[in-house]
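Dear support,

Our group has been running a series of protein-ligand predictions, and this particular one with adenosine-5-diphosphoribose is the one our PI (initials K.S.) wants archived with full inputs and outputs. We had some confusion internally about which version of the output was final, so please treat the block below as the authoritative record. The input we submitted was:
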Amino acid sequence: MSQQVRAVVARSKGAPVSLETIVVPDPGPGEAVVRIEACGVCHTDLHYREGGISDDFPFLLGHEAAGVVEAVGDGVTDVAPGDFVILNWRAVCGQCRACLRGRPWYCFATHNAGQRMTLTDGTELSPALGIGAFAEKTLVAAGQCTKVDRRASAAAAGLLGCGVMAGIGAALNTGSVGRGDSVAVIGCGGVGAAAVLGSKLAGAARIIAVDIDDRKLDTARRLGATHTVNSKESDVVDAVRDLTGGFGADVVIEAVGRPETYRQAFYARDLAGTVVLVGVPTPEMKLELPLLDVFGRGGALKSSWYGDCLPSRDFPMLIDLYLQGRLDLDAFVTETIALDEVEKAFERMHHGDVLRSVVLL
Ligand code: APR
Ligand code: ZN
Ligand code: ZN
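Confirmed final output from the archive:
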């Protein structure tokens, strides 16, 4: 058995996405079918469409999503039909070397649904990040569903499934930002703005937002930045040092993913401080630093994969904080759109007009 639903598909490299009818199989063992309520538009979706991630077209796009479990397959016990869930791309296996060492947020063997969704002619689809949620319904591994409080807005909750979690987690999990710390965040798009919010939640005393776009700096201020630096107008390293008694920040979060901004992060950090790279570089980028500075400045240079999040631990907790009014996830939802407006949302994203456009279904 299977069912047909509408979905946004990228058929070939660089071509505009199209609205298609897709076939969603009934869930097999360990799988779940989720009725999607909301799904954010992320750079990674555009990246798939441009062929920047792989050549496995056609792609079923969308991965920052929340919805309601419609059906589960054999052996699924963690979620049940009717549960309101956020989809994640880290369904931990419990058995890989990271999981066995008690560090499941690094799980090296996360899994997706075993069956494939298809076009009506039988062509197999590649779901973005193993999710594919610009669709009325999608098939995932049950471990990709994390149950959260139903009272949360689906548009805001879904964003925790990717970019916003990456930013919050870069501050809380990877950077271990603590009470009284000084933090600088370089690049304040969806991910960086979330890092600002996470730093505020952690009790950082000074949060310096850095961007080249004043609109992003305004948003960062609304989310908790205590200072802003437009790096087109001033030198980032000097500015961060000036704002931290001449020393640099305890934690600098790089949320752009470029060598030049990484270098700024490296030098804008205090001795023995931490740099967190959450921006994703491209394969041709190279970084050169004096090795003596890497040694002499001490501290930690870390990468943050998906905010080093553990969905089962972090999603329900963050949703609770959101419902208590302590975590403004709504601020990331710049606009809500229909399923056939994803292509337009890509354009707005490209121009930096939005933190997130969210498709409501
Ligand atoms: N210095 C400071 N800020 C910059 C610079 C720069 N040289 N170049 C770009 N920016 C800012 C942009 O103005 C924008 O506000 O970085 C921000 C990037 O934000 P988005 O384009 O909205 O991207 P986002 O979704 O936040 O993702 C950021 O993390 O997950 C990765 O692949 C993603 O590498 C990307 C990064
Ligand atoms: Zn594992
Ligand atoms: Zn994403």
